[in-house]
Amino acid sequence: MTTRTGGCPTRIGGYDVDLFTVAPDHELLCSICHGVLRCPVMISCNHIFCKKCILQWLKRQHTCPCCRTEVRGRLLVLMHRLNKRINRLEVKCQYEQHGCSLKFPVSRMDEHSSSCGFALLKCLNEGCPAEILRKDMDAHLATCQHWKQLCHFGCGTLLTFWNRDQHNCYLELKEEWERKARETRRMVARLKQKSRKIQNLSAQIRRQILLICETLDIPESNETSVHEVSG
Ligand SMILES: [Zn+2]
Ligand SMILES: [Zn+2]
Ligand SMILES: [Zn+2]
Ligand SMILES: [Zn+2]
Ligand SMILES: [Zn+2]
């Protein structure tokens, strides 16, 4: 007799009897979970249970759940041939009610369940209450209004279903740059206009001073001499 612990699925409890296409023999049932033995092991009194079921049981009690005799030691014997026999039995997909009509041996059950398109899954987006068949998940995610993601260009914008189509870092930068350039051009134009006004004004003043000088018969001179004369 050998003690084996590895190599079996780690789910607690046996296989659901209802999944089997042919009702399984009574001897294939676990008397703890009432399912079909998953990873069957034998204890010292020769009774057989799912490995997980008996390990859970022995944590609390030290007698066999069938015959109540004391369990000597922790020796669990893995029933290889029984395991193989169960693994060959045919089962329906556990998502049959969602539309999967596949049938396969028990040994392929876990592999199929983790990829079955008819498995009902929660939407991957936080806050979305939707439950979607795996096969429809991509289509749902494309239109899920709970979609959220930081812009992957690193601009720090939290993109949502509502703003992701408008968001474009490059365009936003370009628009910002163009807006600044327009502003600068407007400022330069305003400054040019002002300097032209000042030039015009100073030319006007110069003309008026000349006119005054001519009237008073004063030689063209600077403001000081004008002031001296008038004072
Ligand atoms: Zn069990
Ligand atoms: Zn027993
Ligand atoms: Zn399926
Ligand atoms: Zn969703
Ligand atoms: Zn961005």
UniProtKB/TrEMBL annotation:
Q: Which UniProt keywords apply?
A: Coiled coil, Metal-binding, Zinc, Zinc-finger
Task: Provide any one GO MF term from the record.
Answer: zinc ion binding
- Domain RING-type, by residue range, is 30-68
Q: Which InterPro entries match?
A: Znf_RING, Znf_RING/FYVE/PHD, Znf_RING_CS, Znf_TRAF
One Pfam entry name? zf-C3HC4_2
Q: Where does the record place the TRAF-type domain? A: 112-155
This protein's source sits in the domain of life called: Eukaryota
The coiled-coil segments of this chain are 174-208
Where on this chain are zinc fingers (TRAF-type) annotated? 112-155
Q: Which SMART domains match?
A: RING
Protein name, entry field: Ring finger protein 151
User: Which species expresses this protein natively?
Assistant: Pleurodeles waltl
The upper taxonomy is:
Eukaryota, Metazoa, Chordata, Craniata, Vertebrata
